[in-house]
UniProtKB/TrEMBL annotation:
One term of GO molecular function: thiamine pyrophosphate binding
Keywords in alphabetical order: Signal
Gene3D superfamilies associated with the record: Periplasmic binding protein-like II
Protein name, UniProt field: Iron ABC transporter substrate-binding protein
GO biological process: thiamine transport
Species for this entry: Leptolinea tardivitalis
């Protein structure tokens, strides 16, 4: 009699596949090793509107690519927050290089983008140390902050303005520029908001800001050019409203050619911050989540400080003595940062909508890039 064939051992169960489009934490991804492996397999990451000198993003992108071997496609580096959101809407079905994976947006765009179902929730492993007005479910979260300043090419402008109202003086004719289109750029829109408070407005009354820019335009002082590093260096936009981190980065990069003076306006101390978020339609969902993990690691946070930004984990970093004295010198003045006026999300959303609606009618100047 033939022996009965040996029973086959049951096949080992295959590990469950992870849908990185829905992963809300590294733990859900199977741990950081699993997340890193999946991100490396994707091999690419699409970022959008990240100038290399904005908060030291150039070094951040280079370090991330070197660390993980992931190619970064940088889309529309000179765009604004509205361009980021529009890019998601335009590329919902497109998994190619024009579809952003991650966002760095002004705070008014966080809640609205969540409401439009454009964002995917995710909480990085350092979530509990992130300070600020973060969405409780992780749809958007604060990345860094600073204050609004005047960046002045002192080779062109010798008598430096100290206040917003000073800028109305005829001696600044054809010398004042915004750093973006206020209808699309968070930085430019918040400049209008700050001007409102400098001219008798309030966090709930932005009209004086629009009126200020109307008068600035009528006097011929306001230029139609977006003041990015090119026009500033050439002297085409001698006085620019900037977030502090951009002004100091330009001062460093120009190395005295031209000379840059940074003025903290005395009539309003205006603070601002930005949000990170992941697109709900990210073509590289694992890489998107790994990017956020990197930004909010100690290494990523210190890289932002090198670019003059105060990262949202600063309190945790300083409590553990992680920030060197050299890096501390690059942080915004602590008193200015702590006493700055910062509107809440609802106020910013309302102000942004009013500026977008009223800019053409009230101010009547189309702000465009020199390129």
């Amino acid at each position: 009699m033939e022996a009965a064939p040996a029973a086959k051992a049951p096949a080992a169960a295959e590990p469950a596949k992870v849908d990185f489009n829905t992963v809300k934490s590294a733990e859900e991804a199977g741990g950081m090793d699993s997340l890193i492996a999946a991100a490396k397999a994707e091999g690419e990451l699409n970022v959008i509107t990240l100038p290399r000198d904005w908060c030291n993003y150039g070094e951040m992108m280079d370090n991330f690519s070197k660390k993980y071997g992931i190619k970064i496609n940088s889309l529309n580096p000179d765009g604004g927050s509205a361009d980021e959101i529009q890019a998601i809407k335009d590329n919902k079905e497109n998994k190619g290089p024009q579809a952003p994976d991650v966002l760095d947006i002004g705070p008014a765009y966080g809640p609205t983008s969540k409401s439009d179902n454009l964002l995917a929730p995710y909480k990085v492993t350092t979530w509990d140390t992130i300070k600020g007005t973060n969405d409780p479910d992780g749809y958007y979260f604060v990345d860094y902050s600073g204050v609004m300043v005047f960046e002045i090419n002192s080779d062109v402008v010798k008598d430096l303005p100290k206040t917003y109202k000073d800028l109305l003086d005829p001696k600044y004719k054809s010398k004042v520029a915004l750093a973006g289109d206020p209808r699309a750029s968070n930085q430019a829109a918040q400049t209008v908001y700050a001007a409102a408070l400098a001219n008798g407005g309030s966090l709930d009354n932005i009209q004086p800001g629009l009126d200020f820019f109307k008068e600035l335009n009528a006097k011929g002082n306001l230029l139609p050019l977006i003041a990015d590093s090119g026009p500033i260096a050439k002297g085409e936009t001698p006085i620019t409203f900037q977030w502090s981190w951009n002004a100091y980065a330009n001062k460093d990069n120009f190395k005295g050619n031209p000379n840059i003076e940074i003025v903290y306006p005395t009539d309003v101390n205006w603070g601002g911050y930005y949000y990170q978020a992941i697109s709900a339609y990210a073509p590289h969902p694992a890489a998107a989540r790994l990017w956020e993990e990197y930004l909010y690691s100690d290494e990523g946070q210190l890289t932002w400080i090198k670019g003059y930004c105060a990262p949202s984990r600063l309190e945790d970093l300083t409590s553990r003595n992680v920030v060197s004295d050299d890096l501390k010198a690059k942080l915004p003045d602590a008193k200015l940062l702590s006493t700055s006026i910062v509107p809440n999300g609802a106020q910013l959303t309302s102000a942004r909508a009013l500026i977008k609606e009223q800019w053409d009618k009230v101010v009547g100047l189309d702000i465009k890039s020199a390129n």
